Amino acid sequence: MKKNGSKARLITFLFFVLTVGGCSSGPEAHSGPLYQDFDFAILEQEAQIVADCVEDRTGFVLDVFENGGVGYGSDTVPKAQSEAVSDEIDNCTAELIPQSPETFSVELLERLYGLQVDARNCYVDLGFDLPEPTSKETFIDEFQSGGMFWNVIQDLVVGHRLSESKQIEIFQECPDPFDFFWR
Which domain holds residue 159? Predict the structure, then answer.
């Protein structure tokens, strides 16, 4: 396993940060454990599968992170080839890692909402000032409509302008909810 906190932002994480927005109003507590019984090794194993695929196709070795992300820095992938490597990360992930269904059931969206609320509470416990989450019903409606929906990662990373090393440190304490949603 290769790890380096100064490497490029985690690809799976970056996708969500760049594509979703935040909303606010009234929190709803989630009942029941969501992270406690999860086998964290699955995330790292899947990331290694993607990294091996990318290395086979491009010759570049990626960093594999315990939370299931892969990444690289300018010291391992020249800028001129970073787009091609990023494309292969997407291709390998789509081909080799089980993907989520196209249509999300209300049950799955309730799970994602609960994971985000749990993560938000963990981030607040670490001392971050974050807006209250939108209601579960609003979250589900916005997600199903294809529009912008509440995303605690957007609130945390963009709202606090966190460095990559700080993000990695935080995710060791409080898992990224999107890592668990797809499992």
Answer: 21-31+103-181
The answer to whether residue 124 is domain-embedded is yes
Q: Find all residues with CB under 8 Å of 168, minimum gap 6, and list them.
A: 5, 65
Q: What is the pLDDT of residues 13-52, one digit of tens each?
A: 333 333 333 333 334 444 444 444 455 667 788 889 999 9
Is residue 41 a part of any domain in this protein?
Answer: no
Of residues 38, 8, 55, the one with CA closest to residue 168: 8
Instruction: Please state the domain count of the chain.
Output: 1
DSSP result, 49-85:
HHHHHHHHHHSPPPEE-TTS-EE--TTTS-HHHHHHH
Residue 69 inside a domain? The answer is no
Neighbours of 157 (CB within 10 A): 22
Q: What is the DSSP letter of 97?
A: S
Q: What is the DSSP-derived secondary structure letter of residue 6? A: T
